[in-house]
Design goal:
- The chain is an alpha/beta fold and 237 residues long.
- The protein has helices at residues 16-24, 66-78, 88-96, 180-190, 203-207, 210-236, and strands at 3-7, 28-32, 47-50, 83-86, 101-116, 132-143, 150-154, 162-165, 169-172.
- The protein has one domain: 3-Layer(aba) Sandwich (Rossmann fold).
- The protein is 31% helix and 25% strand.
- The chain has a nine-stranded mixed beta sheet, with helices on both faces.
- It starts with a strand and ends with a helix.
Amino acid sequence: MRIHHLQHVPFEGLGAIDDWAQQQEHPVTVTRLHAGDPLPDAGAFDWLIVMGGPMSATDEGTIDWLTREKRFIESAIHDRKPVLGVCLGAQLIASVLGARVYANAHKEIGWFDVRLTPDARVSPAFSGLPDVVPVFQWHGETFDLPQGAQLVATGDVCTNQAFVYDERVIGLQFHLETTRQSAQALVANCGNELTDAPYVQSADCILGDDGRFAQIRGNLDRLLRNVAETAGVLAGG
């Protein structure tokens, strides 16, 4: 599968998704929206991945490429391509599908658990994942569940943590792709957000346990494999 991803800032790339794609020999291309790269033709990719960033999905008035990006995501969904959104990417997908994006009651930054819902148990994309999934979080906004979408993961700090729409479209508020290097980049570029708040962890806590990065990598690999396999089945159907 030809994977194309949308990158919003230089310090938030694919993380471990890139490593997985290389291992599976899936070609990867990128549009660096922050650098003014053009968006590709629809026929140039099979799977769209929309990454995170510190801006808001509602910032069309101040970010000139955001409206174009939303139209591009909408077109990919309309073309029935697999679409995966991570953090801001999930919020952009939710917005494209008509849902509201707004400030969460609390910022959620660091290592937290999410719980899979009964709908996750019948979703091929989440097959084999544990009932409770440790994840990495870095967000201050959330989204309403889009009409027609199934909530597949929830949490204590932020209710809507993941959804599936039309089997092919997945929004993850959380990060499974984070590596030590990408977490360090977030701390370096957004460390001003690590304030004394109920659900904001310190840089030492975020970076202190390499085992956490290995744990989320295993769940990431399973999720990506499931998405790729589901896309193949659906295309064959």
